Amino acid sequence: MSASETSERERGDVTADERTWGTVAHLSALAGMVFPLGNVLGPLIVWLARREGSRFVGDQAKEALNFNITIAFAALACFILMWVLVGVLLFAALGVWWLVNTIIAAVKANEGIRYRYPFALRLVT
Fold first, then answer.
1. Which long-range contacts (CB under 8 A, 24 or more apart) does 117-125 make?
2. What does the pLDDT average to over 57-71?
């Protein structure tokens, strides 16, 4: 089976509207760049508003929410470690890793593919 056939099979019956909202669920985490905990509140709002209407959107919003809660915990740990100067480097690396994974997730959701972040605590089930 070719790669395009596999990705078509993974997409299933995901509509354009569902792909858009799945993308918004991931990109709403960028609100964290504007105000504190916006990276958690953005996906939470999308999850609460759209989880009943679409399994795909609910799944992707919950995935984004879990990932960003994990990032918030890691950022807190980096902040604490700033007292020993290691936290500054870890915080910078965490920020780059968060941004790259958020963009990858948004692109995959826009393609209609369910994305799983490489590391996320599954706190919201």
1. 117/63, 117/66, 117/67, 117/70, 119/70, 120/63, 120/66, 120/67, 120/70, 121/66, 121/69, 121/70, 121/73, 122/66, 123/66, 123/69, 124/47, 124/62, 124/65, 124/66, 124/69, 125/62
2. 95
